[in-house]
Amino acid sequence: MATRFEVLNLIAMRIALDRHNAQCPLPARGIHLNPVDRGLLDWGSLWGLPVLPDTRVAMKRVRIDCEGSADNVDEELEELLREAEEKGL
Fold first, then answer.
1. Are the C-beta atoms of 31 and 13 separated by less than 8 Å?
2. Exposure of 21 by Cβ count < 10 A (0-12 exposed, 13-18 middle, 19+ buried)?
3. Which residues contact 60 (CB under 8 A, 6 or more apart)?
4. N or C terminus: fewer CB in 10 A for the chain?
5. Is 13 strand, coil or helix?
6. What is the pLDDT confidence band of residue 76, given thresholds at 50, 70 and 90?
7. How far apart are CA 68 and CA 30, in angstroms?
8. HSE-up of 8 (CA within 13 Å, CB side)?
9. Which letter does DSSP use for residue 29 in this model?
10. What is the mean pLDDT of residues 48-55?
11. Cα–Cα distance between 37 and 23 in angstroms, integer?
12. SS3 75
């Protein structure tokens, strides 16, 4: 039998995934949780997506990851600016 903590987290993750799917044209590729929460839940996957520990996610929060996620946006922007500078743009 699931605990209240598990049920509430399951509901929160489903809501986050449904919102992502309704608002983002790119498919979700993972569900990210704070490592403490991920350890307490011990779910390897949900709805065909991996449930991954991520230190950037606050406890009691969830983040849906997709190709449109801005995780590496700073590095990508720096690379684009460097390429533009090299081309004299």
1. yes
2. middle
3. 34, 37
4. N
5. helix
6. low
7. 12
8. 7
9. E
10. 94
11. 25
12. helix
∠ Cα 76 17 63 (to 5°): 45
Confidence of residue 34 (pLDDT cuts 50, 70, 90): very high
Place of tokens 């720096």: 78
Q: Cα-Cα-Cα-Cα dihedral of 46, 52, 53, 59, to 10°?
A: -40
User: What contacts 77, CB < 8 A, 6 or more positions away?
Assistant: none
| Structure token digits, residue 28 | 């979700």
Place of tokens 């090299």: 86
Q: What's residue 78's pLDDT?
A: 72
Q: Hunting for tokens 């790119």 — which residue is that?
A: 26
The residue among 14, 58, 15, 16 whose CA lies nearest residue 36 is 58
